[in-house]
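Entry, Tuesday afternoon. Goal for today is a structural model of the target with pyridoxal-5'-phosphate bound, before we commit to ordering more compound. Inputs were pasted exactly as handed over by J.K., no edits. I checked the ligand SMILES twice against the vendor sheet because last time a stereocentre got dropped in transcription.
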Amino acid sequence: MSAHAAKRLENLPPYLFAEIDRKKAALVAEGHDVISLGIGDPDKPTFPRSGKRMSEAVQDPQNHQYPSYAGSPAYRAACAQFLQTRFGVHVNPDSEVLALIGSKEGIANLFPAFVDPGAWTLIPGVGYPVYSGGGILNDSKSWWMPMRAENDFLADFESTPIDVLAQAKMMIISYPNNPTSAVAPPEYFDKAIAFAREHGLLLVHDNAYCDIAYDGYRPGSILERPGAREVCLELFSTSKSYNMTGWRCAFVAGNAEAIATFATVKSNIDSGIFTAVQDAAIEAFTGPQDEVRQMCELYQRRRDVVLRTLDDMGLEYHYPKGTIFIWVKVPEGYTSAEYAEKLLMEAHVIVAAGNAYGPDGEGWFRLSLACDDRRLDEALNRMKELT
Ligand SMILES: *Cc1c(COP(=O)(O)O)cnc(C)c1O
């Protein structure tokens, strides 16, 4: 690292895929065909009507100037409409919605907005890496809430020590969950809300997979629950719902005072989302939602193919009701990293080692369903031949 690097960067975890990346490059150089099931990025393109709407919006000179920091009024209204149609949640688009340049940006900026240096944030024992990274970049501390299979991967906030709670400012949860694919019942949200109120925490729910669910399961919004409006912020993204990861367009909704605080911090950091991108997202939020259902059907078909293979291989997994991931137990005798390496070297298949997502990820690996069907079949055939 550069001699000029800030000291806090020493606290960032080592890049866990460095070794895998090197080995992959060597295999590819030898002419091997390597298939990645490691990536959480939809393989299908953005639905065409969003692209069409943006090409028109790009031509409008009004859109060439600085966008509105909070999101255009039309964008925030579309976000509110999204919450209304999906969940029957009514929010005020002026005071309870804020545009984000992707939820990742939102998560990272929660820390300067709500967590003092040295204070604690309760984060899932296995989760999206920005939850811990955001704290490190802000000189605050992360308490990993235990997240175990026997507990259906529901983060256990109740076991947090009293001295941590005394200096805790925020708690982050996320269901349907990346990487475990676990979902949460409404009662879990209710308990989390009560806990946040009791301990004066801002409760953040990352709902990136609210649209990606199977077997008729419909993920909820924490904002549907009583009392949520007082302590909660909830993050939504166009990325997984509408295959728009490249567009960087998301929003946060919830407690009006927290939204105002967040907006103050963000107005010191960024200047909002290109308005033509917001227009494309409006089209996604407010147009017909058939493509979203079709994507779920596609992922569900892939999921079933993968689960059959895992059954054949005798591998245990958490049965996924949502997300684009399958969380698989590493066979006896391997660590997550060792098994991921075995899959790469012997099957030429890349998976994400579970320990990259937090302490409770050791002993697991994550398979992504965001892979072309033909390539997925090929990867599964190779995995089946492993001994
Ligand atoms: C993909 C993902 C996001 C979405 O991030 P964007 O920045 O909106 O693309 C957020 N949280 C989790 C857990 C994710 O897996």
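The first helix runs from residue 18 to 29.
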